[in-house]
Amino acid sequence: MSKFSIYNTQSRDLQAVNVTGRPVHIYCCGPTVYRDAHVGNLRTFLLADLISRTLKLSGMEVLLVQNITDVGHMSEDFESEDKMLSQAKLEKVDPFEIARKYESKFHSDLARLNISPANSYPRASETIPGMLSSIQTLIENGSAYVSESGSVYFSAQSFPSYGAISGNRLDSLKPGHRYEYSDDGEKKFHADWALWKSAGNRSEMVWDSPWGRGFPGWHIECTAMSLDLLDSHVDIHVGGIDLRFPHHENERAQSNSIVGGEAVDLWVHGEHLLFEGRKMSKSANNVVLVEDLISKGLDPLSLRLALMENRYRSQMDLTWDSLRAANSTLNRWRSSMASWGNSETIGFDSEIHSSLLADLDTPRALLRLRAIEKDQLLTSVQKREIFNYADQVFALDLKRVVEVKPLTSEQSALLESRATARANKNWGESDRIRDLLALDGIIVSDNPEGQSWAWSN
Ligand code: AMP
Ligand code: ZN
Asked: Motif 'KMSKS' region: residue span (predicted)?
């Protein structure tokens, strides 16, 4: 059987996963739990799930660790404000309360998307001893130094292959770049970064250390947790493309300096998700959450399907239209599955299998599923069994029984008026009617053959 290969950002090439005799060690950078995960974050978390499920489909075992960042992640504006503490101030509650609230919302979002739980979810705040011992090792082997105030910095120049993942070599990182804590004047070299930061005036989320009270940097968290929980070797490291630099570059320097070799075999990055053509951001007020889908009557798994229609390595623009279309495809597939009998047998399809093994080509695998749906040479039972097979990775609950309620005469009339409005290119009216129908749980979507509808379930 051929092996699962995936694109390695570091080697810039496809690489096969060659692990035998033990589970494949996967580490996926988890959420910073100061706010809800948006559909873009979920695209990245789904990537780790698709990798795990594809490996399992090939008979391999997986050990997946995903961290919970509840301390140490500073705001993008580099004003040295911990994201957790700023949100705690805003919501006027204890930072740990914020962390636990968003952590539990993160887990329910994952469940709604059928993302299988990781084997462990270590919290940064509960892994301080591991981070302190990693930092101690780095000081002892000359990779890090302690500043006068009791902060500890990693010396970027001690790691000659710095930049191998992102291409940001040290000699091209100029002093003018906005680095973390660039203003504190304690670093020996502009590209050095804090492993431990002395508390200064900060009184919350601080711990004792051999260098005084303080708090950990974000990058050392992933080094400490991945090495500790994955036996000092990560086979596949997953994260969004924005984490390539500096987060993963710094993590690689730290982890390799501890283990004395490559700690990670494969660096996998998911491209970003745009929504209706724009980057999602709070300031642009276009952050979309799973809850927003649910409140529009869409099955959260329509997000899973819509995301899989695109390759993880391409930037993707998600739209309400594509979500509605995915929702109606889901309904159609579930109804077809019911009409194809009740076989629980898991079939096999070599094209779906080979598409997934080849760098997770989910769009091609879905095309194949559509072809199977229409294939007149296959029996209903065969179709159902291949759908059962595909659903091991797609995880779209294809066996779910959908309720088929009849439409009321008002609802039928509304559907007809909408079709007329569209034929007359009266888009405002057609959108208005679509929203009215959504309130009744009827999801309308448009396709080249005209409009179609389904119960939202
Ligand atoms: P955060 O909670 O901000 O630390 O992000 C969690 C994960 O989501 C990281 O792996 C990010 O790279 C990823 N991420 C952030 N924004 C997006 C986006 N728009 N599309 C896909 N992944 C994203
Ligand atoms: Zn990380």
From this structure: 279-283
